[in-house]
From TrEMBL:
Cited PANTHER family: 2-AMINOETHYLPHOSPHONATE--PYRUVATE TRANSAMINASE
Lineage top rank: taxon: Bacteria
Protein species of origin: Moritella yayanosii
Protein name: Aminotransferase class V domain-containing protein
Keyword Mitochondrion carried by entry: no
Span of domain Aminotransferase class V: 26-329
Positions annotated to bind substrate: Q335
Amino acid sequence: MKKDLLFTPGPVNLAANVRTAIGKKDICHREVEFDHLLSSIETKLLQVFNINSDNYRAVVITGSGTAANESILSSVVGDQHILVLSNGEFGERLNNISNIHNKNTHHLSFPWGESFDFKKIEAYLTQHRIDVVAMVHHETCSGMLNSLEDMGALTKKYGATFVVDCVSSAGAEIIDMEKCNIAFISSSSSKAIGSYPGLSFVIGKTAAFEKLKDLPAKTMYLNLYTFYSFICKYSQTPNTPAVHLFYALEQALSNILNKGVDNYYADLKNKANILRQGILDLGLKFLIEQKNMCSILTTVCVPLNINVSVLRKELRDRSIIIYEGKGCFKGKVFQVGNIGELSLYEIDYFLTSLKEILNDFVHIRNNNLSAVKEIYINDEFRIEDDMVTVSL
């Protein structure tokens, strides 16, 4: 079977030993073998994030990253007031989740693809009672990496509990929970961690977990204190877990630790830099400045003479999978990830393929302008006298 190259922010191409791990022997989740497996995963998670196990715990949930986010948002607020910050699709998703569970949900929305305005945020904190603040670290819809340190300083100043969606940044960026005053982070198995989809996890301060004991439960399956209680008492999960996905997650974490966390991060940054320079060399531009990007994803502006869906299909025909833009970015950008088992050779193959496909678009324009005038973007036909083209 021909391999698809997943140049996406997740799911990703997996290491061979992660694929093998999922085929390990069947075990019962209420037996000692699973106790040891879950304990090993928790230990490795805390090691990957360089977190002191005396002050923090990690729980694993069978469900995607959204399950971990909903577990946090339904469990930590109670009747208090929560402020959700958003500058993209996933921040808005946090707000939607919070509105389901928390009657005192506040929302500060900023334009997609723009950094948070911390002066406006601080002004809001001075004018309103806010007990909890939630935000997304890496806003995948644009590729924007939001500042944990700046927001952490504000939450500390105003005495708010700080919770962060790190679904696509965990395992790729340094996340200093202590320095940034973070009570809980969420993430998933299928992005920079490099395992199968289907598991998520929450890492939190032990003291913050303990405070959940006195809050009323708003969900059954996703009650965060229940997960914490079970791992503390039994080294188990409260519900039947996807056991074989736990095997794979443990192996993926072992791969990171065996390589060295710093080396793992450096490798991702190196691949991102090579990918980005190659894209710039094709004359393309990025949606946001490189200094604001996470090291796993690049969002590329599309020239007017190119239809993203056609570009994506042409790449797919070469076994290369990329993302299209969403929401206000639909038809205007495409996104390229560099996580998972993607070699430098495969990155070069992507860049070569992209150049050839873009060259075909330019060739069409130069030889048949009428055909170019019928290329549509954002579901509209557009006629441009001076269409933006790529320089090859």
